[in-house]
Specification:
With 262 residues, this protein is of the alpha/beta class. Helices cover 42% and strands 14% of the residues. The structure holds zinc ion (ZN). The site of zinc ion (ZN) has 6 residues, from loops.
Length: 262
């Protein structure tokens, strides 16, 4: 099947905007191609930029577009959560938040303190959360086991037994650009979750290129957004022996429910 089939309604539940200047073009592309998108912002500067771009962009269209905000674990020294009250109140979800002891040097105690405070903000404001769990999956699973609001685990790549712990706690998961039935975790993500707990994501253009080993294009090749999300949606439908369009509609519905857009 052609992976660029245009009729599938596509869903990108977690995407960072490019730092370079084609961000407006990317927003227009997402609207024109009806890609439901949550823009993930990791600092107050990113949050303000995303809102400014949305305000100035000519991005009319049917697909919903929302913005999440959370102090990313890599940015845990950039702000105190107490400085971010307005963003927490206005965002569609608090995230991505969490812990990372593999890809950053921010001391873990600082990350934990910021994460705990952001969980409290989300609980107090009744906001869903989006989790970054790199290398700290077991600790985070324990920390959110009784979290009262919806939880989305973004692009999970940790141990299979901890995946099961998140799944038992009724967390949702995004399928990242590299999701494949060929490995055990990919198979579990594609096949084991109940259909209302699954979303698709790109993590933004840089996530797509990272997953492809930087070989398939540049951040200005916006068609990769559609190709990537179509491919993941079709893989999910195939793994479940489901109709791709029905699966794509389910993903869109999950997106709107998680981010409380309807
Ligand atoms: Zn991300």
């Amino acid at each position: 099947m052609d992976v660029t089939t245009p009729s599938l309604p596509l869903t990108d539940a977690h995407a960072h905007l490019n730092c370079d200047d084609n961000a407006l073009e990317e927003l227009a592309y997402r609207r024109e191609h009806a890609v439901a998108t949550c823009l993930s912002t990791a600092t107050l500067a990113e949050w303000e930029r995303a809102n400014d771009l949305l305000a100035s962009a000519d991005v009319e269209g049917d697909a919903p577009l929302c913005v999440s905000f959370g102090i990313h674990p890599w940015e845990a020294t950039a702000h105190e959560p107490s400085e971010c009250a307005e963003a927490y109140r206005r965002c569609a979800a608090i995230g991505e938040i969490g812990l990372d002891d593999l890809w950053c040097d921010v001391p873990l105690p600082r990350q934990i303190a910021v994460f705990e405070q952001q969980l409290q903000w989300a609980a107090d404001l009744h906001k869903p959360i989006v989790l970054h769990t790199k290398g700290q999956e077991a600790r985070i699973a324990a920390m959110v086991a009784d979290f009262p609001e919806p939880v989305l685990v973004h692009w999970y790549s940790g141990p299979l037994d901890i995946f099961e712990r998140f799944a038992e706690a009724a967390c949702s998961f995004t399928l990242g650009p590299d999701c494949s039935e060929e490995d055990e975790l990919g198979h579990a993500l594609l096949c084991a979750l109940s259909p209302e707990r699954i979303l698709t994501e790109t993590d933004g253009m840089e996530g797509i290129l990272w997953a492809a080993g930087q070989k398939t294009g540049s951040t200005s090749d916006l068609s990769l957004i559609e190709t990537t999300l179509s491919r993941t949606t079709l893989a999910l439908a195939r793994a479940r022996n489901a109709d791709p369009h029905i699966m794509a509609c389910q993903l869109r519905k999950n997106f709107e429910l998680f981010y409380a857009l309807n």
